[in-house]
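Progress note, sequence design subtask.
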């Protein structure tokens, strides 16, 4: 008669148990295995149902009876159907919130290859922009003036190292980046403040940009596995917005900077994922959501060097928070007079480099 072995009480995955490292028990892969590209197998299935590390969930798309539309041809319903008057209070700006209602059926869009190449060229500039300018189109230079979150410190360090990458030192650079990414991924989400959530989304967004477009196959594969984490963290940031106030004094320049950084970060997160989906799959399914996301149309407010100049600009410009689609409609009829890197990226998705 065969001898029945007692069931194992092991909770960690086999790889973490063998290395005697702590396992976060995430399924289908723990973060340590995902970051190192290891095969993650559990002897006993974890009870947790936390963040999935799989790639895009696009099975069944495009729909058999649906129409694939090109981004340059896609238009949302009229602005009157896009309600901007609900919850999120923005200092000196119309009341606004980041829409949480997704389209019942995702709109499917395709970007031309030349447009995708142009968008990637713009996005790949971001690591150097952060290192040399100390800011990004979605990270204002005054955002973390009082206290610089650890996730942003690590992001700056990784970007600075990455700019010095050569064929001889790239393995070392990637090892440093892998370690820093794991530190960000292991931050306890349950204790996140609003600022922590924003900083971690911004950090992971920059790490994804480096990994996806570096050209290294392993780094790209790791980034693909962590796409769902970026999606989840971004959605958490959106869901906080109508319900949680800014950590800064209301009606202040710093409060507006924080609010606008949240809006732009959410847009860039969706934008990056949509762009890469077009590269990998030939289409993306987030055009409807992306086109509805809001930001402030006046670049002078983002570029104001002081609170005094920001207040003067806010009073003279009649600032407005608009959806991405409404911004493009304004640009088409000549109502957008100044273009900065953020706006150039948004317009580039419709018009390309021209």
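Output:
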């Amino acid at each position: 008669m065969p001898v029945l072995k007692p069931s194992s009480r092991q909770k960690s995955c086999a790889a973490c148990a063998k290395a005697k490292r702590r396992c976060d028990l995430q399924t289908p892969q723990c973060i340590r295995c995902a970051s190192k590209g290891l095969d993650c197998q559990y002897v006993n299935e974890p009870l947790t149902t936390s963040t999935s590390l799989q790639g895009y969930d696009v099975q069944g798309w495009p729909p058999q009876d649906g129409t694939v539309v090109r981004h340059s041809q896609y238009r949302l319903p009229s602005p009157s159907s896009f309600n901007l008057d609900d919850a999120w209070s923005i200092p000196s700006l119309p009341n606004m919130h980041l829409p949480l209602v997704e389209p019942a059926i995702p709109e499917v869009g395709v970007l031309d290859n030349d447009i995708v190449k142009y968008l990637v060229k713009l996005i790949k500039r971001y690591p150097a922009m952060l290192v040399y300018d100390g800011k990004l189109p979605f990270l204002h230079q005054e955002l973390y003036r009082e206290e610089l979150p650890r996730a942003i410190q690590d992001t700056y360090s990784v970007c600075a190292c990455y700019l010095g990458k050569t064929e001889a030192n790239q393995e070392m650079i990637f090892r440093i980046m892998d370690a820093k990414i794991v530190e960000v991924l292991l931050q306890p989400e349950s204790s996140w403040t609003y600022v922590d959530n924003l900083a971690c989304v911004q950090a992971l967004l920059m790490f994804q940009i480096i990994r996806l477009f570096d050209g290294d196959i392993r780094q790209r594969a790791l980034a693909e596995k962590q796409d769902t984490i970026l999606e989840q963290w971004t959605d958490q940031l959106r869901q906080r917005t109508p319900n949680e106030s800014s950590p800064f004094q209301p009606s202040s320049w710093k409060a507006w900077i924080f609010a606008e950084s949240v809006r732009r970060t959410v847009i860039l997160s969706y934008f990056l994922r949509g762009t890469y989906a077009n590269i990998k799959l030939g289409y993306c399914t987030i055009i409807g959501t992306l086109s509805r996301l809001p930001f402030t149309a006046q670049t002078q407010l983002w570029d104001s060097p002081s609170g005094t100049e920001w207040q003067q600009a806010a009073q003279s410009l009649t600032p407005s928070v608009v959806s991405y689609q409404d911004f493009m409609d304004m640009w088409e009829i000549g109502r957008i007079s100044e273009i900065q890197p953020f706006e150039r990226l948004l317009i580039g998705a419709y018009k390309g480099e021209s």
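The longest strand covers residues 294-296. Work on this subtask will continue into the next period as scheduled.
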